[in-house]
Structure formats: C-alpha cells, structure tokens
Amino acid sequence: MQQRIIGSRKVSAIGLGGMPMSIEGRPDQDRSVRTIHAALDAGVTLIDTADAYHRDAGEVGHNESLIAQALSSWSGDRSEVLVATKGGHLRPGDGSWTVNGRPEYLKEAAKASLQRLGGDAIGLYQFHRPDPDVPYAESVGALADLLDEGVIEMAGISNANPDQIREAQQVLGGRLVSVQNQFSPAFRNSRPELDLCAELGIAFLPWSPLGGISKAGDLGSRHDAFAQVAQAHDLSPQRVALAWELALAPIVVPIPGASRPESIQDSVRAEELELTADELERLSAEALD
Ligand SMILES: NC(=O)c1ccc[n+]([C@@H]2O[C@H](COP(=O)([O-])OP(=O)(O)OC[C@H]3O[C@@H](n4cnc5c(N)ncnc54)[C@H](OP(=O)(O)O)[C@@H]3O)[C@@H](O)[C@H]2O)c1
C-alpha cells in the first residue's frame, strides 16, 4: 500500500472513515467490526473517528469505542495504526449537530476520548468545527495545551478556511499536521485549503470524499467523467474519485467511510490506479451538477 505522511507518522494513502458505522442507518456491531478488520487486513493504517459519531443521546464516543474494540480483536500490528479522532462537535440525540469550542470543554473531551481509545496518548486529535462563540485561537490553544501535556501526540483541525489554517499553525507553534475538510467530485470548494496545505506541507484529509453517505453509491450516475474513466479501466467510479483526489497533491489522504467490508476493500485499491494526465484533466474539468 502506498504511504503518505501525517506529521511524524506514515499512513496508508487511503484511510477509513468511521462515521457510517455509528450514526443513523448504522449496521450491527458484528458487521462494523468486520468492516474495520477488512480495512486493516487490506493495509489501512489510518482510521478517522470523532466523539460525536454516535446516534442517540448518552452514547457519546460510540465510534471510538467500536474502533478500540475492533483493534483489540485484530491480530495484526496495532502500533502501525493511527487513530485520528476529533472533539468540539456534539449530538444532542435529536439528529442535530451542535458545537462547543471552549478550551476547558475540549480538554475534557480529549481526555474522555483517550479513555475510550486506550493507550498513552491520542495519535491525532482534530478540532472538529469552529465555534462562532469562541475565538478560534482559544479553541486551538486547547490543542497546544493537550500537546504540551502529552494527552495527544499530534494536532489537526477540521472545517477550517485558509485564515484559520494559518492562525492554527501560529497558535500551535508550527505543530499543525493536518486539515480535514469536505472535498469530493461534487464538492470542490476546499481546493484553496488543499492547495495551502500542499504549500505548507500539511496533510489534507478530504471528508465525504465520495460525496457523502447517501450519495456515494450513485457517484457514477452523478458524474459522467468519473463513470467514463471507470468504464475504461473496468473498475468502480468511487475508486476513480479517490485516485483523482490522491493525484491532486502528495499531501492528500482521503478517508472514505464504509459500513461494509466490500466498500473499503474496493476503495483502498484506488492507490493502485494511475490516471493519465488527460484523464486527470477531464476529471478536474468536469462541470459540477
Ligand atoms: N470533519 C467533518 O466535519 C466530517 C464530516 C463528515 C464526514 N467526516 C469523516 O469523513 C468520512 C467519510 O465521509 P462520509 O462517510 O460522510 O462519506 P463518503 O466517504 O463520501 O461516503 C461513505 C459511503 O460511501 C460508500 N462507499 C465507500 N467506498 C465505496 C466504494 N468503493 N464503492 C461504493 N460505495 C462506497 C459507503 O457505503 P457502505 O456504507 O455501504 O459501506 C459509505 O456509506 C466519515 O466517515 C468521517 O470519518 C468528517
């Protein structure tokens, strides 16, 4: 499996997004564990999660606990696997998502995530989403404290604009290792952030890289150019989408979600696909719906 860099760690070029295994529509625990094991067996060494990946009130950290459980029952080398979690988003249990970027809250949330994930420190902790009621530097300052205290090994941010990326890099004293923003064939508005990460040498993790849980299955029917290239190579349009993202810059590490082993087994093989310059140009130029 092709490797990419996040801070001090090497990870598989394709990661696994854990959200579909814990929110509305999630599968049973057995299928989730089989999905995570399938990813690990295929060479995935980056798993993305968040304390907010749960469905009901009272089950904060559902996805973190699931990943910890799947890792403990896996026979491979767990030390190779980077689990990236996030804090600052909450789900009250009515289907909505709220934010809390207060530093005291984030520090407590990170410690609770560490307890669920186990180990000495969280490999990568990402501030999930800016809180309009809290100055950004104060929220990111909590990550600096968590790094200094050894609660987290690396710090990242999510849903950030270019100014926030620069501000976070400054608050963290140059220790920002990753930015996780929405990016897919259907959503390309984060291209400035992707390009800035490439310039700064920071990993860029596209979230919903296939267009999101409800749309990922129809990627081919929504995006002609991706369907045509997929047909020419006799593989899925989802794989083409991930290969296109990988080709945009060496700092890109997509984290496709999955709730079935077959989905992630297909997605990881995107790293084998080398698209021609002409194909890349067609995919990048495709008119959006
Ligand atoms: N930072 C943030 O604010 C934020 C927001 C959203 C998501 N995320 C992260 O990003 C991850 C990915 O985003 P996402 O899960 O929303 O959307 P996504 O990755 O665009 O789509 C996920 C869906 O794609 C399907 N899929 C995956 N590989 C496939 C393949 N090769 N062929 C056909 N279908 C395939 C899966 O279906 P099955 O379920 O049938 O396997 C899954 O439900 C999340 O899991 C989460 O970790 C972060």
Main attributes of the structure:
two-stranded antiparallel sheet, 289 residues, alpha/beta, globular, 11 helices, binds NADP nicotinamide-adenine-dinucleotide phosphate, seven-stranded parallel sheet
Architecture overview:
The chain has 289 residues and is an alpha/beta fold. The protein has eleven helices and eleven strands. The strands form three sheets. The protein has a seven-stranded parallel beta sheet with strand order 3-4-5-8-9-10-11, covered by helices on one side. It has a two-stranded antiparallel sheet with strand order 1-2. The protein has a two-stranded antiparallel sheet with strand order 6-7. Helix 1 (29-41) crosses helix 2 (62-72). The chain is globular and about 50 Å long. Bound molecules: NADP nicotinamide-adenine-dinucleotide phosphate (NAP). Residues 17-20, 48, 128, 158-159, 180, 207-213, 216-217, 236, 238-239, 255-260, 263, 266-267 line the site of NADP nicotinamide-adenine-dinucleotide phosphate (NAP). NADP nicotinamide-adenine-dinucleotide phosphate binds next to helix 9 and helix 10.
